[in-house]
User: Which sequence fits this backbone?
């Protein structure tokens, strides 16, 4: 029994952050990159290939003991081909479909008796829902891409014609808060959650997270963790998953599932004894899961989005002097407007102060605050 | 102003652990390895070369903006040649000599008015000290290598003849405790220490550390941190340094200096807001230093030494189930008897429990406890 070799399809920031616990644990770790310049290539062995090409992916898998993913874009057919060739792939294709297709996910939530918003499929632009409503392309979207607010029938008809395929339509809810629960589960069924995370969105992109969710009742908090565990079991999850929820009228409805380490779990690198990245590795290797408890009362994470500044080093001179406890994570990506190029995290007791420092850092790095 | 490129001479576990904050900070990071199989090569770009060959080292330095070291073995002449060629090297040769030569260090401590044990140089085996005494080869030793307990004149004469060079002789003190203080200092003089660490030794090798030192008076604790800051300034330190001290009769004497990240600071990866590895990078880049405060009341680190077991993966099945909060660090080294092949860390409130779990893990991984 020696160290199993893990291969990750995708070499962006999630694979990059997963490389750290892989190396700490001594796990040989290789990423399957789209280009020689992907962010994870500087911290891991990498091969370049096309994840939609099953021959490429199978050749990569032959050099690994377990395959996992950092994104939902690998075609289900490729994943099934891996499985049929006897490759150990986690999450399994059977589970991964709930991350890859939002209609299949909605049906599964109904089957599990969990609250969905009112929803229906529509391929011709007809709907029984009231306007305004939300229309989603079932597969391939993230960070608000593939999601549309539709105000009237004309707009829906136009979208349906443009998309030329089935749409998922959902009622537009009077959202109070958006919450994410990270959960991990291993092949033999050990499962574990972290405290629920409040995700603060702007224009459909998460800009800040607060863990645990402030001002939430103990009952609701526990209920949400139980929901995450129920879904994990219900879909046969192996690895980590983000369960995204809306809080409406003091209760919740399911929004989306992401079967991978997730932006809403980045706080766990500093904020939890076991990060989502380490837990994912433990889960897919069927190792006992780590302690998910927090290292401080609060963890606040802020996404650094590309803005007018292109130099991400110079801001250190000011920010490190101002906030010595601020933790930086650069993704090794070129700065582009609105692109997630890194994140910062603060942990501590004083939530207001943590939020202020994270806000300041993010604005300063993105160039919203002038130097 | 863009990300400066850091090059590290040496590619063992210290460079490996330094690669993590380098990547988090977005710092291009390359290690100068002795072989293609060195431990840091899997997490960093690497070039293979001979660190005693100034041509090799200069060629490497030409690809970097700052050069640093993970060991004391680079010849002073090579470091000076780098400096004379205009390469930014930290720590500087001037400072590094106190880490490289224990006699020069003893003289400097005297100059700074800091307590040494009684000591003298001897090249012919004569001494005015009482037996038993400690004899040290001034350069090149670590982990107890190059350090001898000498019980009588015959043994000293024999050693002096064998070594054929100058020896540092020191009185053998009735040691109560061995303590290490990590300190960081940047080129413009910002300096910072972590709480003092108790290092527990067996056969001259550190087996466990406890931070902060339990049952130490506040006065002594502050005095020790001040000593570390005084030495850092006195030798013009840039980077991090371990100041190793002996506690004798409730006071202290200086033992050794190590001008690099040090085994006694490994606890800081999980136990401090800023680890020694991140602080070293901030210091050599002249960035503002990070917050060194602890993330928990205590941090206990245990070195995993090579023993009868050669499989370091299988122990995870038991240890992760028993102690979910235990953090593992594998160095990617082949198991050899007595070799440091990794370490484990626990942080928390209950010191006795932390020590027990670390002891158990280390014994279990080394094979002292049977499965």
Assistant:
């Amino acid at each position: 029994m020696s160290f199993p070799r893990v291969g990750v399809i995708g070499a962006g920031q999630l694979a990059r952050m997963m490389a750290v616990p892989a190396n700490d644990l001594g796990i040989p770790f290789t990423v399957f990159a789209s280009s020689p310049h992907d962010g994870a290539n500087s911290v891991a062995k990498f091969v370049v290939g096309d994840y939609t090409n099953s021959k490429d992916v199978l050749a990569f898998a032959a050099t690994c003991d377990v395959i996992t993913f950092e994104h939902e874009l690998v075609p289900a057919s490729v994943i099934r081909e891996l499985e049929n060739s006897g490759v150990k792939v986690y999450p399994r294709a059977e589970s991964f479909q709930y991350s890859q297709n939002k209609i299949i996910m909605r049906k599964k939530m109904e089957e599990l008796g969990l609250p969905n918003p009112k929803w229906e499929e529509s391929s011709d632009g007809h709907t029984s829902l009231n306007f305004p409503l939300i229309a989603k392309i079932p597969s391939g979207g993230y960070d608000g891409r593939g999601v549309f607010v539709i105000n009237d029938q004309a707009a829906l008809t136009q979208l349906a014609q443009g998309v030329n395929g089935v749409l998922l339509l959902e009622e537009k809810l009077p959202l109070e808060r958006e919450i994410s629960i990270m959960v991990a589960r291993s092949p033999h069924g050990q499962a574990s959650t972290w405290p629920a995370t409040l995700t603060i969105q702007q224009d459909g992109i998460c800009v800040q997270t607060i863990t645990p969710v402030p001002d939430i009742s103990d009952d609701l908090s526990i209920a949400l963790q139980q929901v995450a565990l129920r879904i994990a079991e219900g879909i046969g999850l192996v690895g980590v998953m983000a369960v995204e929820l809306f809080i409406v009228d003091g209760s919740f409805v399911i929004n989306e599932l992401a079967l991978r380490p997730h932006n809403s779990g980045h706080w766990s690198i500093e904020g939890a004894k076991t990060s989502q990245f380490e837990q994912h590795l433990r889960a897919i290797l069927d190792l006992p899961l780590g302690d998910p408890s927090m290292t401080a009362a609060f963890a606040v994470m802020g996404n650094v989005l590309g803005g007018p500044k292109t130099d991400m080093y110079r801001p250190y001179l000011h920010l490190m002097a101002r906030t010595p406890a601020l933790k930086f994570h650069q993704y090794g990506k070129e700065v582009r407007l609105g692109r997630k190029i890194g994140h910062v995290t603060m942990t501590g007791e004083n939530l207001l102060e943590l939020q202020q420092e994270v806000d300041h850092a993010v604005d300063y790095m993105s160039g919203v605050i002038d130097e």
